[in-house]
From TrEMBL:
The keyword Methyltransferase does not apply. The lineage of its organism: Bacteria, Bacillati, Actinomycetota, Actinomycetes, Micrococcales. It comes from the Bacteria. Residues 108-193 form the LytR/CpsA/Psr regulator C-terminal domain. It comes from Arthrobacter sulfonylureivorans. This is LytR C-terminal domain-containing protein. Keywords: Membrane, Transmembrane, Transmembrane helix.
């Protein structure tokens, strides 16, 4: 009897999983066998990172310690740092306390300004003062922040005696100092101005400047 069964093809051997197209794939296990890790070698980037972290930590600790020591020294007064601490109290503006002789009317330059809305008042007062022998300089307008005053008399240190002269000729005035270097005087006429002190009633004896808005106000010397 003839065997008519179809012969079975030969079984193929399964390809090894580590072979691919005739090439062997190297795995991690193969590398471990070739390069054994003895546990004493760190990867370079990890080693450098640890050094960097250590340096940064040391710097931060040093900065904290320096800040604490500096703050302690400043609090104890051992160290003075410009700009630290409360600002110094403002220096109060006081009225000059000297006693002044009465100078001649024509011995200094006098500028007259109108501090009111009344047109021509500055020129009028300048003309009256010129009749008394004053050396008149500028005549014009200025803003006056002192309300109700007869006039404001302004000078520098060198013109204090001259300002005293004007206060004896114009009643109820206020003295204000500025930083000019010369002996000139400014008179800013205010809304309270009425008239000059009559010539025969001008007090020419030594005296003090009048600064009623400044504290402390000067007092006449006793004795």
């Amino acid at each position: 009897m003839t065997d008519t069964s179809i012969p079975q093809p030969p079984k193929r051997q399964p390809k090894q999983p580590l072979d691919w197209q005739g090439q062997r794939v190297i795995t991690e296990d193969d590398l471990d066998v070739a390069f054994e890790d003895d546990g004493n070698v760190e990867k370079p980037h990890i080693y450098h990172r640890r050094i960097l972290h250590g340096v940064v930590l040391v710097l931060l600790v040093g900065l904290v310690i320096a800040a604490v020591l500096t703050a302690t020294a400043v609090a104890r007064g051992d160290l003075k740092i410009p700009g630290w601490g409360p600002p110094p109290p403002p220096v109060p503006i006081t009225c000059p306390a000297g006693t002044y002789d009465y100078p001649d009317n024509g011995s200094f330059r006098l500028n007259v300004y109108n501090g009111t809305q009344l047109e021509g008042l500055g020129s009028k007062v300048a003309s009256q003062l010129a009749d008394r022998g004053y050396d008149i300089g500028s005549v014009g307008n200025k803003t006056l922040s002192f309300y109700g005053m007869s006039a404001v008399v302004v000078s520098g240190k060198a013109g204090e005696a001259n300002a005293f002269n004007l206060q004896r000729n114009i009643p109820d005035t206020e003295y204000v100092a500025d930083d000019r270097a010369d002996a000139s005087v400014d008179v800013v006429v205010g809304a309270g101005y009425k008239e000059l002190v009559p010539v025969n009633r001008v007090d020419q004896t030594p005296g003090l400047l009048s600064c009623p808005r400044l504290s402390p106000a000067p007092t006449e010397p006793t004795g």
